[in-house]
Amino acid sequence: MIHNQIIDELEKCLYFSIIVDETQDITKVEQLSVILRYYLDGIVYERFMGFKAAQSLTASSLFQYIKEILSTSNVDILKCVAQTYDGASVMSGKNNGVQALFRQEVPNAIYVHCYNHRLNLVISDVCKNIPSVKMFFDIVENLYVFVSGSATHAKFIEIQTTMKYRPVVELKKICLTRWTAQVFACLALKKALTPLLVLLNKLMFEKGDRAAEAKGLLHLIDFEFVFNLIMFCDILQILKTVSDYLQNVKAEMAQSLILISSIITTFKIMRTDEAEKNSSNFNKMYVEATNICKENDISTQNEHSTKKRIKKIPDKFKQFIFTELSSLETNLITSKNGLRQHVYIPALDYIIKELERRFTDNYGLLASISYLHPQHEQFLCYEQLKPLAAHYNLDLDNLRAELKILPATIIKYQIHFNVKFSLRKDFFMSPTFEKLHEESDDK
Question: What residues contact 109, with CB distance under 8 A and at least 6 apart?
């Protein structure tokens, strides 16, 4: 009955978009899930169409499975205007991927790589490809693993209770698949840093198997680590705000593009602010890190020293080391300027570069959608909407004429019916507007 109702709704729709993903079930069989998204009677629906066991994972086979599911539901594939998958090459390949095969039959079906997945990959790349950042998150994970031991965890909770921490803070595990969730791990560690240091100091002087490990971890919690902690609490909270919106079923493409553009601008401002100014983002982080270190008796930066040398590897041992020696013989950052140049700037540069790289495909076309959003300063601009209209083969002369009268129409509509729309889509989706539009078509 549910399936028949979905089919009835789809028959009334002019267009739909498709969302496809594959995953293993409990018996290790790859299953393809298909979801259709469409607009009907003022509401946007997302309907699950079913699973399809995938015996073959080639692009042609996966595309055939998708067509079979649509065919079973009597859905006309030519009504599809957009397709969304993950970034796996079998799905996203420009020449032989599922999206390419799909567009051979349905040219108007724009491919969009899941935006939240892209954002997750940005953080993942930053955390894996910048050595100092990778080291930081490795330490965060090692601290979680160390404290998770039953006896150690009990002592950690006991110390927090004695120090009157309310509520008690639990350290969070690093999530390898959802990197935007690392903000919880960073925030928990920042809040529980003091009792954690007390725990490590206590265990270091006790007899036990974990004394040496506690001493090693305590040595790793230096000024640079604290600064990274402050920096990523800030950066990840910014990214999480966007990630939360992108995961919302009511998320819109126009607003998503505006948010992505906004965070790129935000990071660029953070990257170029003047470190000397007390109000600069970097300086605020530096001051906060300094205060935390002073409160916890952690050595702070030496303003008069620029670098502290790590002991070089003897030449006779270099032949046995199969890695770049420069990474092993780098200098420890000990000055404020060095911290900015070697930690803060590289992290922001990499994030900005990855955001711009991953969100540029189809951007010219998809960006047109943002000009339908009332928050955009060029709302309903014909020149900006033209790429989208041309892709869907709309009459550009009629579009230009409609856009000229539409702003005034919206204002008069609100006055005449004594209503106020928070978004222009409320106007476009209102039954009265649809009736007016039908009347104008008849004329």
Answer: 18, 80, 81, 82, 83, 99, 102, 103
The pLDDT of residue 292 is: 94
Handedness of CA 144, 148, 151, 154 (dihedral sign): positive
Helices 193-204 and 150-162 pack at an angle, to 10 degrees, of 120
Q: How far is CA 22 from the centre of its chain?
A: 20
User: Is the pLDDT reported for residue 373 higher than 80?
Assistant: no
Which homologous superfamily does the CATH classification assign to the domain defined by 2-113?
ATPase, nucleotide binding domain (3.30.420.40)
User: Which residue ranges make up each domain of the chain?
Assistant: 2-113, 119-358, 372-442
Determine how β-strand 16-24 pairs with β-strand 43-53.
unpaired
Give 274-329 pLDDT, tens digit per residue. 656 667 889 999 999 999 999 999 988 654 444 444 445 566 655 555 544 344 34
What average pLDDT does the chain have? 83
167: preceding bond cis by omega (within 30 degrees) = yes
The reported pLDDT for the residue numbered 123 is: 83
Q: Kindly state the average pLDDT of the residues 160-186.
A: 85
